[in-house]
C-alpha cells in the first residue's frame, strides 16, 4: 500500500485481513445479483472457501484455475445453482474448490447411426431401415439442466421418430422420396430436442432392406414391365417398317427400272456373302407375267 505523508510516498505492507476484505467486497459486488438465493449458510460456505483459497494460495491455485478449449463451454454450479445463467469459456476461468462444480459441454457437431429398425409401412409391408443423424449443442445450460444425458436421449428419440415418420408412408414413397422423409424427421427431431438445447442439423436414410419375397415380386414386376415395353417397341418398329415398304413399293411401281436395279443389287450382295453358291439370274422380262 502507498501512503502520502508530507509530500513523500511511503510503501507499507498490506495485511491478510485487508486482502481478504478487498477480495470479498469485489466478489460480493459481482455476485449480489447472481446468488441472491444462497442464504446465510451459503454465504458462510462461500466466505470460508475464499478464506481457504487465500490461506493456501499457492496450492489452491491449481484447483481454482480451469481451462476450456475453443469448442467447449463450462457450466458452473455454486452450491447447486448455475452461476451467471451463461456458460464460461473459452479460455481461463476460476472456481472455488469447495463450493463450485462445473460440467464441460462439447459444442462440435456429433453424428450417430440409427440402428436398423423393423418398420411396418402404411401399405402393410415390413422393412428394415437405418439412418444417420447430425446434431450439435447450441445451449450448454439447457443441455445440462433440462436433460440428464442429452446424447443418449437424442439417440432414443431418433429411433422413435424414424418409426413414427415411416409408419405414415407406403413402400413406393419410402423408396422414391427419401429426401422428403429426411426433412420430416429433421423437423420433428429439432422441435422435440429444442428444450434440451440441441439443434439437429441433418438426418439421412442410409439403407432400406426389403424381405426376399418382396424383392422377388418387385423383380418379376419390373421384368414384366420391361418385356411389355420391348413388345410395344417391336410392334412400333414393325409398323414403321411396313409403312416404309409400302412407300418403297409405290416408288418402284412408278419406275419399273428401279425393280431391275434392286434385283441386281440383291444378286450382288448374295454373291458376296455366299461365294460357294452359283446363281443364274433370270431376265426380269420373264417375271413380268408373275408380277402382274
Automatic annotation (TrEMBL):
Can you say where in the cell this protein is located?
Answer: Membrane
List the keywords (alphabetical).
Answer: Membrane, Transmembrane, Transmembrane helix
Ranges of residues in domain Band: 63-222
User: Cellular component GO terms, alphabetically?
Assistant: plasma membrane
Chief location of this protein within or outside the cell: membrane
Residues crossing the lipid bilayer are 44-68
The organism's place on the tree of life at top rank: Eukaryota
Q: Which family does it belong to?
A: Belongs to the band 7/mec-2 family.
Q: Any idea what this protein is called?
A: Stomatin like 3
Amino acid at each position: 500500500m502507498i501512503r502520502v505523508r508530507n509530500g513523500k510516498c511511503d510503501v507499507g505492507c498490506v495485511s491478510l485481513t485487508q486482502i481478504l476484505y478487498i477480495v470479498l467486497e469485489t466478489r460480493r459486488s459481482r455476485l449480489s445479483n447472481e446468488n441472491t438465493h444462497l442464504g446465510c449458510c451459503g454465504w458462510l460456505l462461500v466466505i470460508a472457501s475464499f478464506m481457504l483459497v487465500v490461506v493456501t494460495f499457492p496450492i489452491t491455485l491449481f484447483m481454482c484455475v480451469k481451462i476450456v478449449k475453443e469448442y467447449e463451454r463450462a457450466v458452473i454450479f455454486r452450491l447447486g445453482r448455475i452461476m451467471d445463467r451463461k456458460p464460461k469459456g473459452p479460455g481461463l476461468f476460476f472456481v472455488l474448490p469447495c463450493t463450485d462444480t462445473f460440467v464441460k459441454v462439447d459444442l462440435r457437431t456429433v453424428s450417430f447411426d440409427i440402428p436398423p429398425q423393423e418398420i411396418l409401412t402404411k401399405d402393410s409391408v415390413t422393412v428394415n431401415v437405418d439412418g444417420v443423424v447430425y446434431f450439435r449443442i447450441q445451449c450448454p445450460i439447457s443441455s445440462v439442466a433440462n436433460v440428464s444425458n442429452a446424447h443418449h436421449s437424442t439417440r432414443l428419440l431418433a429411433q422413435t421418430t424414424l418409426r413414427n415418420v415411416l409408419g405414415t408412408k407406403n413402400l413406393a414413397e419410402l423408396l422414391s422420396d427419401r429426401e422428403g422423409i429426411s426433412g420430416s424427421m429433421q423437423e420433428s427431431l429439432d422441435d422435440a430436442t429444442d428444450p434440451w438445447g440441441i439443434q439437429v442439423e441433418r438426418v439421412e436414410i442410409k439403407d432400406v432392406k426389403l424381405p426376399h419375397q418382396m424383392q422377388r415380386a418387385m423383380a418379376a414386376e419390373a421384368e414384366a414391365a420391361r418385356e411389355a415395353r420391348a413388345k410395344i417397341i417391336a410392334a412400333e418398329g414393325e409398323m414403321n417398317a411396313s409403312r416404309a415398304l409400302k412407300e418403297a413399293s409405290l416408288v418402284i411401281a412408278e419406275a419399273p427400272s428401279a425393280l431391275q436395279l434392286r434385283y441386281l443389287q440383291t444378286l450382288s450382295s448374295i454373291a458376296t456373302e455366299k461365294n460357294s453358291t452359283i446363281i443364274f439370274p433370270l431376265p426380269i422380262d420373264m417375271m413380268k407375267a408373275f408380277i402382274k
